[in-house]
């Protein structure tokens, strides 16, 4: 028996749930270290331009496709054009890959929150603590399972009683925590061993001031790729999530207004995350602290909390609680996409599909955990970086599939279906789509070209051509 299709109760429920998906580890974990790596304010400037152009186009496209078809990615593209049903399968593959490692990262965050809740957390600041934890046999799996079980429980409760209700409670608290911590970090002051006084406001300048030193065309393309990869990960576009959430949106909702609100939520949190993390790391660790890359929050920040003295533990608890909220809302959206597609494809009830997806997520996440010990290997990726199992999954989903899916989607909407199909859905209730002209131009001429370039850069073909 086919279940009645779920829906969000209204605009606020949709916006908070979609923002919850968008506001995740991508904003708070990836954004600050990419910003520090790619020239501070230069990366920020590139990212903002991308959000206002590509982000707006891709987000509007996904949500409109979902609401118009009332189907998930697997079936939505087939309804648009039967010859393009393969694009639905490609899109579905992205959350399949992301789900393998997102709960692992969620488990890391859960572990650090637990450490600071039950102790002063001094051990978390010791060199080698993070490496020792992720390379151990059992602990990463246990904390991953706790995080995954909570994710599955929320998805099991459904759209309105689970995802929407959870988002309405968590999102306001998440944003409040981010604002409080960001303001606190800007007030920090510390005297370095050489006698230099470093302040949070100086760290803010490091964050916001564009660094054009050594900028070349190739380097700019690398920054552009990082920013676009961050955009995909952050806004949850080109992975079927926003198509799924869009399919739950009622027809009387103003899509243009809703997508604008999601953009504001997502970008605002990303900017605040940078204001929260980069000044704090600068104050206590200087510029060297920025070089820890993806491990910024697990290696550098515990040292910052340790240096804060009596304020360290409360700040750490608030930070990792906020990180936990962000990771959970995003992981819920990834799992919901898999469950919803499974329900639609196999006509099975939510309860059974939650069980199937939960088992898949657990088994693959265990393999990712083992990728740091028993299954450890190093592989040079086409983009020049070297990684192991988690990095491979992240590269395939974010740097390879997402630009490729966006390229194909822009061709389908821009040249096969026509931009007016999307514009008509946005204006369904008579609301004026003020950026319709920009949307039409971007989806037909700009997005395909830029996505092709980014795809060639991310796969290493650009270097071969050069």
List keywords for this structure.
466 residues, mainly alpha, Hydantoin permease, two-stranded antiparallel sheet, 19 helices, 4 strands, Sodium:neurotransmitter symporter family protein, membrane
Walk me through this protein's architecture:
- The chain is mostly helical and 466 residues long.
- It has a single domain, classed as Hydantoin permease, CATH 1.10.4160.
- The chain contains 19 helices and 4 strands.
- The protein has helices spanning 11-22, 25-37, 41-69, 73-80, 85-118, 129-134, 139-156, 159-186, 200-208, 217-235, 241-247, 255-285, 296-307, 312-346, 350-370, 389-417, 419-426, 436-459, 461-465, and strands at residues 189-191, 197-199, 379-380, 386-387.
- A two-stranded antiparallel ribbon has the order 1-2.
- A hairpin with a 5-residue loop joins strand 1 (189-191) and strand 2.
- The mean pLDDT is 86.
């Amino acid at each position: 028996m086919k279940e009645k299709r779920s829906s969000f109760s209204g605009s606020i429920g949709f916006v908070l749930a979609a923002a919850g998906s968008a506001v995740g580890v991508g904003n708070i974990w990836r954004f600050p270290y990419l910003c520090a790596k790619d020239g501070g304010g230069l990366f920020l400037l590139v990212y903002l331009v991308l959000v206002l152009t590509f982000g707006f186009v891709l987000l509007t496209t996904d949500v409109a496709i979902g609401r118009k078809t009332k189907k998930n990615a697997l079936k939505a593209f087939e309804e648009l054009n039967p010859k393009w049903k393969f694009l639905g399968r490609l899109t579905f593959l992205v959350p399949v890959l992301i789900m393998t490692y997102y709960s692992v990262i969620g488990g890391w965050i859960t572990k650090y929150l637990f450490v600071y809740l039950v102790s002063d957390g001094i051990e978390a600041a010791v060199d080698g603590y993070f490496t020792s934890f992720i390379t151990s046999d059992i602990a990463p799996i246990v904390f991953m399972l706790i995080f995954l079980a909570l994710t599955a429980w929320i998805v099991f409760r459904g759209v309105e009683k689970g995802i929407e209700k959870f988002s309405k409670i968590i999102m306001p608290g998440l944003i409040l925590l981010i604002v409080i911590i960001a303001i606190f970090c800007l007030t920090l002051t510390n005297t370095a061993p050489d006698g230099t006084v470093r302040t949070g406001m100086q760290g803010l300048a490091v964050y916001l001031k564009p660094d054009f030193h050594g900028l070349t065309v190739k380097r700019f393309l690398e920054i552009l790729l990082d920013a676009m990869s961050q955009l995909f990960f952050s806004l949850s576009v080109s992975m079927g999530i926003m198509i799924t959430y869009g399919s739950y949106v009622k027809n009387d909702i103003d899509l243009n207004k809703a997508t604008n609100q999601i953009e504001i939520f997502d970008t605002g949190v990303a900017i605040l995350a940078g204001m929260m993390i980069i000044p704090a790391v600068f104050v206590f660790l200087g510029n060297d602290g920025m070089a820890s890359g993806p491990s910024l929050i697990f290696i550098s920040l515990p040292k910052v909390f340790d240096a804060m003295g009596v304020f360290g533990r409360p700040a750490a608890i608030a930070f990792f609680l906020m990180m936990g909220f962000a990771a959970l809302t995003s992981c819920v959206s990834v799992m919901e996409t898999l469950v919803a597609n499974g329900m639609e494809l196999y006509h099975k009830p939510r309860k059974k599909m939650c069980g199937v997806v939960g088992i898949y997520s657990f088994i693959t996440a265990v393999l990712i955990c083992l990728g740091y010990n028993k299954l450890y290997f190093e592989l040079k990726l086409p983009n020049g970086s070297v990684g192991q199992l988690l990095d491979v999954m992240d590269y395939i989903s974010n740097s390879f599939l997402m630009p490729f899916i966006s390229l194909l989607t822009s061709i389908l909407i821009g040249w096969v279906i026509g931009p007016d199909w999307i514009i008509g859905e946005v204006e369904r209730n008579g609301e004026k789509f003020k950026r319709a002209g920009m949307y039409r131009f971007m989806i037909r001429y700009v997005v395909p070209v830029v996505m092709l370039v980014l795809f060639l850069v991310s796969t290493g073909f650009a270097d071969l051509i050069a």
